[in-house]
Specification:
mainly alpha
Amino acid sequence: MAGIDKEIDALGPEVDPSVILVELDGLAGKLADAERLREQTQTALYEAQREDAAAKARLDQALSSIPVELRQREALERNLADTRLRYAKRLRAIEIAKRTKDETANAALAAKHDFMAAIDAHQNAISRRETARALLQQRLVERNLSEADYQSFKRFIPSIETDKVAIDAFKRSLNLAHDGFAAALKAVEGLARPDLTMLTAAFTDAQHLATTALEQRVKTENYLENLETLRRTIEQEQKCLEALELKSEPLRELAGLCTGGNTSKLELETFAIAAMFDRVLDAANRRLRPMTKDRYRLQRDEGGSGKSFRGLGISVFDMETGKARLSSTLSGGETFIAALALALGLSDVVESVSGKVHLDTIFIDEGFGSLDTDDEAGTLEQVLQVLTQLVSPSRAIGIISHVKAVQERIPNGFYVHKDVAGSRIEARGVI
């Protein structure tokens, strides 16, 4: 029946048949009017086609005396455009030829002027050469030199000034040497001749020591120069490093924040996971409070010491003591409740983050035997009430348990019996 009702609903709202008949009559009248209009339009079309054929015949007769290539407007326009283009090219060619002619005439006139100037310069050079040759012959006669002597001494002319300076320097050195020789003769006058062999050996040793010292000095200077070069290189690199450090300081600071170099000692990945974990814990606490009568609250353990990063541990805040304690100190039943609350909280967060993910079915295997079943206000009763509230038309919860109180609270289910033939399933309640 439900399927038939859906099909009826799909047909739309109910309509009065008399209203439909009236609308059909109106549509029939409109259809007849449209048919008459179509026939009139068809007649007008035939008339227009006859007039078009007659006009084409008159056009063909008028164009019969015109060449075929000139009958089309497009061909005429292309021919005219080509003619204008050739005309424009020829005008440009004429302008270029005129400019080339003028430039060539100017170049020829300038070349003629240069040619005449070159002839004048050549004549002047010949005249100066003859004058210089006559002056040279006169000076050779005055110096009593022949042409051959002049040619032999000619190669020394460029270094005359340098030779004069060298001769003057040699004269001064020679005078100093004569003065030194005279002073040495005066200084040794009346003295005995020293032992030249011993002095020569001492001089050789001293010369060897001087050579060694000079070599050591050269090595030291080279080493010092290398050190100076290294120092300058280090200073330059230091400046580059300082500039790079100054430029990369924001990036390094951001990298430090992302890798745990912050006051919270949290890496970016750990921070993101911790933020999502806090949402899971908040959702889990909403499930945990009614199951523990508002005694316990789960919280993320943010403890850490030294250089270690904060972790993602869980601690339990006890409302009765007002202190947080380790989750390992919970009893078996309390641990089961906390795990169940975390699972439900995680499903709530997943569904809220991604609307496409729904936790349609939840299966819980055992764990109820560790809960308090003393009375209706016990822990088991609180847990079952929370699970009952989760049941909806779009969500089912399956529980596997041997606890009698749990079996009594669940209206629908199965019993599993074991015998020698194997396991046997017995349905109970309404399935």
